[in-house]
Amino acid sequence: MATDFKSIPIIDIGPLLAKCDDPKMGQDPGVAQVVKQLDQACKEAGFFYVKGHGIPETLLKEAKNLTRKFFELPYEEKTKIKMTADKGYRGYQRIGENITKGVPDIHEAIDCYKEVKPGMYGDLGKPMEGCNQWPTNPPNFKLLMEEYISLCTELSKNIMRGIALALGGSPYEFEGERAGDAFWVMRLIGYPGSCNDIGCGAHTDYGLLTLVNQDDDINALQVRNLSGEWISAPPVPGTFVCNIGDMLKIYSNGLYESTLHQVTNSAPKYRVCIAYFYETNFDAAVEPLDICKQRTGGAKKFGRAVYGEHLVSKVQTNFVY
Ligand SMILES: N=C(N)NCCCC[C@H](N)C(=O)O
Ligand SMILES: O=C(O)CCC(=O)C(=O)O
Ligand SMILES: [Fe+2]
Questions:
Q1: Residue 154 burial class via C-beta count within 10 angstroms: exposed 0-12, middle 13-18, buried 19 and up
Q2: Which of ligand 1's atoms lies nearest the C-alpha of 101?
């Protein structure tokens, strides 16, 4: 449940990662300390920074640099990988093509999703079928981004073990049928500078956990607290900003909320951000966990949602054609 938080906590998850492959990790004092901080941050803000995550800072920077180089190319070059419904909504979209609550966002982006093979999820998966469209310029783009995705996937799985413990479950609540074959989304985003219009309108994320790797020096991401104030999430170099998505809100029966956030880049510089979204299995039917119902008075606050349906309904209304 969000509160009137005024800032977003920084959590060093080093001790969690050191023990995350030990089935008895929950009994380790270092892990317990991290779990307590995760629980508090998820309840109070639904947002936290992580440090001690083990992904080299050079890779975080390199991914942003390549993204920036791509967006600097002429439109004719960028549109070679244009996003269309036929490509499973993968690829490049120009400024104003993404819409949030009916209003065009002042950003450009490349959207990538875990591959969906034809027929993989029947009719449910059909709109998302396809492979990613990677630019050939700048060189090594695909290679670097695939490395980035694979490290973010592993890291998210491990943070979710900590969150599972924080909810009072086993470390593996979010594996197997829930998120053992986690779907993922990655958005490489560019926001023009000196812009007073909204770069990305107020929204919640769709899945379990988001890892945001934002440009240093530009303060643009804002998170809404309970009284409706917009609290800044300024860049903290070397960290990820993490936030909870709609599926984790349901699993936790509202103990943790998917917090509204938005982006405005009024700074003079162009801003790059890489958002990696760790989701449930594409076909997971998500409903409140028993352990969470008990902690929230016994009644179910949310009905069942199928993640893939939620994603498809968002994706199909996110773009102007
Ligand atoms: N895959 C995720 N979570 N993307 C978040 C983008 C949010 C903006 C989008 N137009 C919307 O209205 O949701
Ligand atoms: O640009 C950012 O800092 C966050 C972007 C975001 O919230 C999203 O793409 O879902
Ligand atoms: Fe977001």
A1: middle
A2: 12
Residue 281 C-alpha from the chain's centroid: 15
ipTM of the complex: 0.97
Q: Span 131-153, mean pLDDT?
A: 98
- Pick the residue whose CA is nearest to atom 4 on ligand 1: 205
Q: Tell me the ligand closest to 109's alpha carbon.
A: 2
Cross-strand bridge partners of residue 277: 185, 210
Among 108, 318, 319, the mutation site with the greatest number of ligand 1 atoms within 8 A of its Cβ is 318
pLDDT at residue 320 in the model: 74
Supply the DSSP string of 10-50, one letter for each residue.
EEE-HHHHHHTT-TTGGG-HHHHHHHHHHHHHHHHTSEEEE
> At residue 321, does pLDDT exceed 90?
no
Three-class SS state of 222? strand
pTM over 0.90? The answer is yes
Apex CA 119: angle with CA 130 and CA 251, to 5°? 85
Model confidence at 1: pLDDT above 60: no
Count other C-beta atoms under 10 Å from residue 77's C-beta.
14
**What pLDDT is attached to residue 14?**
98
Ligand 1 pocket check: which of 205, 208, 248, 264 to mutate, most ligand atoms within 8 Å of Cβ? Answer: 205
Taking the C-alpha atoms of residue 308 and residue 127, their distance in angstroms, rounded to an integer, is 10
Rounded Cα distance, 67 and 70, in Å = 5
CA distances to 54, 167, 240 from 32, in Å: 19, 12, 21
Residue 18 in this model has a pLDDT that exceeds 80: yes
Identify the CA nearest to 159 among candidates 242, 223, 235.
242
